Amino acid sequence: MSGDQILNVDRLSMRFGGIVAVQELSFAAEPKKITALIGPNGAGKTTVFNCITGFYKPSGGTIRLTHDDGRVIALERLNDFRIAKQANVARTFQNIRLFPGMTALENLMVAQHNALMRASGFTLLGLIGAPVYRIAEKRAIELATEWLKRVNLLDRADDAAGNFAYGDQRRLEIARAMCTEPALLCLDEPAAGLNARESAALSELLLSIRDELGTSILLIEHDMSVVMAISDHIVVMDHGLKIAEGTPREVRDDPKVIAAYLGTDEEEAIAVMESGS
Ligand SMILES: Nc1ncnc2c1ncn2[C@@H]1O[C@H](COP(=O)(O)OP(=O)(O)OP(=O)(O)O)[C@@H](O)[C@H]1O
Asked: What InterPro entries does the entry give (predicted)?
């Protein structure tokens, strides 16, 4: 991979007791691009995500995030809270983690808690309704509204998120992550449980996030129709190791990748081989 890097993962390792979930993994992600991490079940993808987003402290290696202004942040030294707040990395989870009892709009407002707390001077200015807080609150509502529009949920802004169809919840989760205006958006299986129409809509949404907003995306996904259609670069893992990387076409034609998938799930192997052609 050439050019700038927003994310550089160097010899990342993660051990759980005797299990080596990730072994000396190195890869980079370019800014304003979609980088996908794929591999059969148990390959170590989610563990890599959990290391990047501070849910796990890696056993070894470095994870560097470079911001537009040149700041370099060592993610392996920060916890999840600091990675979200200081490094400006947002993530979604395999299992949806919206606040089900809150409305769609409220979910997107909660996401902007850090910005609002700063503007409130950590409560006092907010309590007395100071102009600086009111401006920040207005902006937060505008951003939330913009995202509800982008994910086609504006007419359901006041409905409880828990009542939404599964595909709508997935899109709302991405909107919530985007309301933090992240430098890097990490998505853990965003197409899981979606039908073909919803997967196509998701692909369009992610392409618009890349192309219109210039947000860098790191994606774990099993749905090859999504991965092959939207990824600029794909890193393939198996048994904790990187076995291949390249463009969708390069990866699809790589015998090591086909062998890794053939060893597990036939349907998925066929999807890898047939996709992108
Ligand atoms: N917290 C943990 N404690 C112990 N072992 C773990 C833990 N998390 C992951 N593992 C192990 O690490 C390996 C990699 O798991 P991981 O969930 O990262 O794979 P994956 O590629 O994301 O799989 P999937 O596609 O099924 O989600 C597996 O053997 C798993 O059992």
From this structure: AAA+_ATPase, ABC_AA/LPS_Transport, ABC_transporter-like_ATP-bd, ABC_transporter-like_CS, BCA_ABC_TP_C, P-loop_NTPase
Q: Is 14 in the pocket of ligand 1 (CB under 6 A)?
A: no
Query: Tokens for 265?
Result: 């799930």
Q: What is the pTM of this model?
A: 0.87
- C-alpha 19/C-alpha 90 separation (Å) is 28
Residue that has been written with the tokens 């073909």 in this structure: 196
Output the residue whose Cα is nearest ligand 1's atom 29: 42
Listing DSSP states for the chain in one string gives: --S--SEEEEEEEEEETTEEEEEEEEEEE-TTSEEEEE-STTSSHHHHHHHHTTSS--SEEEEEEE-TTS-EEEGGGS-HHHHHHTS-EEE--SS----TTSBHHHHHHHTTHHHHHHHTTTTHHHHTT-HHHHHHHHHHHHHHHHHHHHTT-GGGTTSBGGGS-HHHHHHHHHHHHHTT--SEEEEESTTTT--HHHHHHHHHHHHHHHHHH--EEEEE-S-HHHHHHH-SEEEEEETTEEEEEE-HHHHHT-HHHHHHHHTT-HHHHHHHHHTT-
Say yes or no: CB of residue 41 within 6 Å of ligand 1: yes
**Sign of the torsion formed by the C-alpha atoms of 176, 178, 180 and 185:** positive
Instruction: List the strands of the sheet with 60-66, edge to edge.
Output: 19-29, 7-16, 60-66, 72-74
> How far apart (Å, rounded) are the C-alpha atoms in residues 219 and 263?
23
Q: 166 CB less than 6 Å from ligand 1? A: no
Which amino acid is residue 85, in one-letter code?
A: K
Domains detected in the chain: 1-88+182-277 (3.40.50.300), 97-180 (3.40.50.300)
Query: ipTM of the assembly?
Result: 0.96
